[in-house]
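Inputs:
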Amino acid sequence: MRIPIQNVTPECGHAEVCGWVHEVRDLGGLAFMLIRDRTGIIQVTIPKKKVPEAVLAALKAVSRESVVRVTGPVKAIDKAPGGRELVPESIEIISLAETPLPLDVSEKVLAEMDTRLDARFLDVRRPRVAAVFEVRSAACFAINQYFHENGFTNITTPKIVAAATEGGTELFPIAYFDKEAFLNQSPQLYKQMMMAAGCERVYEIGPIFRAEEHNTTKHLNEATSIDIEVSFADHLEVMRILEDLIVRIYEYVNKTCSTQLANLEITDFAVPKAPFPRLPYAEAIEIAKKKIDEPIKYGDDISPAAERAIGAEMGGHYFIVDWPSEIRPYYAMQYEDDPSICKAFDMMHPRMELSSGAQREHRYDILVNQIRRKGLNPESFEFYLKPFRYGMPPHAGWGLGADRLVMTMLGLSNVREAVLFPRDMHRLVP
RNA sequence: GCCCAGGUAGUGUAGUGGCCUAUCAUGAUUGCCUGUCACGCAAUCGACUCGGAUUCGAAUUCCGACCUGGGCGCCA
């Protein structure tokens, strides 16, 4: 029976371990072989005069990163790493790795991102890389748990859609039998439709696709979005849900991922505190004006430099609220007393935007007017507008970038670090 | 799409016109070595992205292509 390496102790007496050959050090009459599985590394010590002929043959034939099965007695030895070692009765080479390797798993020489992504399967063998995806998995678990505890229904919406439903971003066209179709940029319209379906509280974690030719460390053409929509809620209520969720994710990672955080050399993991500050857009612009040189005025989008300047001032997660209606989508609800601003918000990490959301306009006539005022034709929105004519509750929601969440939580410099197989302008393989 | 910086052994690098038969590290191969833990020692192997131009001479300068990193723009 195979034992995970972290569970191998002298008390086991005898053990069988399976894993990858991390390193071999041959001292002559004595050799050391380090075996790694996802739980840890164990030293296999081979006194050449005392082990079977077949073990010597395997030692000679094996290459780094080959998969092996090793059996033998476990001994407590102070001078061995972890205080224990395995003396092999048998070493079976299950899968011999070719040499040389496309990158150095033992990290003596660090590879560049492009090289790493080309051989991602080897890259992820590095504990510090695996740790990112283990933390990402823990975060996903915390998210699912939070939503289930809070009465949300998990939904799955189509990723193949007929038309550009929101305008703005470029879509990827695909061949769909004899029709034109696209990869969906957002589940926005579908989750709103689920409000008309009476589901009241829905969430989805899924891929979104954007055909923008951007070339930055925080944009990808395929991203993972965490989306919610809540009936009978306003923007303030879904903002509370969002900050609550962020705190929950950080707490859960902090509680369950100490090994992974150690592998990532993160010693100061800080759980943010709710509530996050609410910074009106107009004030955000004033901060940016004071701190950076470029010309900024009310009504502009917030540039990356402005985002960083405001983030430095705020020092932690925060919301930007009360956005000008003209720079938010048609479906954002405007304030009754001042229609020039709307009930939309962005949730920011000091480094970048993580989420945006709003209370939606649920009143059919007003919504149609807002579509017109954006210069769009309501007739092409019929599939979206139809549910609003048959009993649509007031509702609000947001979308949160999962990749950026992991990136900012772990202080990664490039969003590609947080995605197993990132898709950008240049990369389609593997 | 624009701008900037790059492309040298499997990996990561040094090298600004001749001293390059190209540096160093890591790796691979072989040999020696009984407590390594980035083991050590010795030998060997392995590279200038592609095409064109300038020049007596190009890794190095110029032009073009392709590729990569970063910034900006774009990004419901």
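Residues 105 and 126 of chain A are 6 Å apart (CA to CA). Flag for discussion at group meeting.
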